[in-house]
Amino acid sequence: FRGMRFSDLPPDGAPPVVLGTIGPRGLDLAGRAFDGVILHPFLTVEAVATSVAAVRGVAERAGRDPASVRVITTLVAAPDLPPDRADLAVRARAVSYFQVRGLGELLVERNGWDPAVLDRLRAHPTLTGRGIADTAVTRDRLVDSAELIPAEWFDAGAAIGSSAACARRAADYRAAGADEVLVHGASPAEAGAMAAAWGALHPRPAAAPAFATAGGAAAG
């Protein structure tokens, strides 16, 4: 990015600092010392609710206002996407997370899922001996191995379907206590109808959005 620079320096006040984490120690640190936390993709609604309670509980015990620690959950979504695009946006992306040793185990533990699936996934010929999949193969080559991931993991940890259904799925995470839902997987253009559906469900005055895509599109 040659020539890139901040347009206005210095900024007005210190920017908020948020921590991306998933495990109990990270959640503890976020509650004690950070302005917010970004939760990892493919957590269930129940796992997010547990994480929210953990962060806010730590904040309260540390003498902070629990509501001041903003919880942002990440939802991998494929709203109204054709099957081949949904495979890349959600299913292959899931493989790139669950295949990573340590991270896969932590996701499974937080969600209460069967850890034996990880062994079967990592033994797939596409993944065997390749280290971290994201750096070793292109995402389209991960689609076949995604068939080893149970369908209920996608049902409970992601959003695939109509834009309205994906927006309702995002609303489930808000109801679980998340302050914001960050949509990943779909591009901002692909998530536009989902953002509109969210706006119809949750009309808000002009303020910080409660729903945003990883690429920047947002709805109030």
How is this structure best described in words?
By secondary structure, the protein is α/β, with parallel strands linked by helices. It has helices at 24-33, 45-61, 83-98, 103-111, 116-122, 133-136, 151-157, 163-175, 192-201; strands at 18-21, 36-39, 70-79, 159-161, 180-185, 211-213, 218-219. It has two domains: 18-78 and 163-215, Aldolase class I (TIM Barrel, Alpha-Beta Barrel), CATH 3.20.20; 79-157, no CATH class. The protein is built from nine helices and seven strands, in the order βαβαβαααααβαβαββ. Strands 1, 2, 3, 4, 5, 6 and 7 form a seven-stranded mixed beta sheet that branches. Strand 2, helix 2 and strand 3 form a beta-alpha-beta unit. The longest helix is centred in the first third of the chain and has 17 residues, at 45-61. It is globular, with a radius of gyration of 18 Å.
What is the structure about, briefly put?
The protein has two domains: 18-78 and 163-215, Aldolase class I (TIM Barrel, Alpha-Beta Barrel), CATH 3.20.20.70; 79-157, no CATH class.
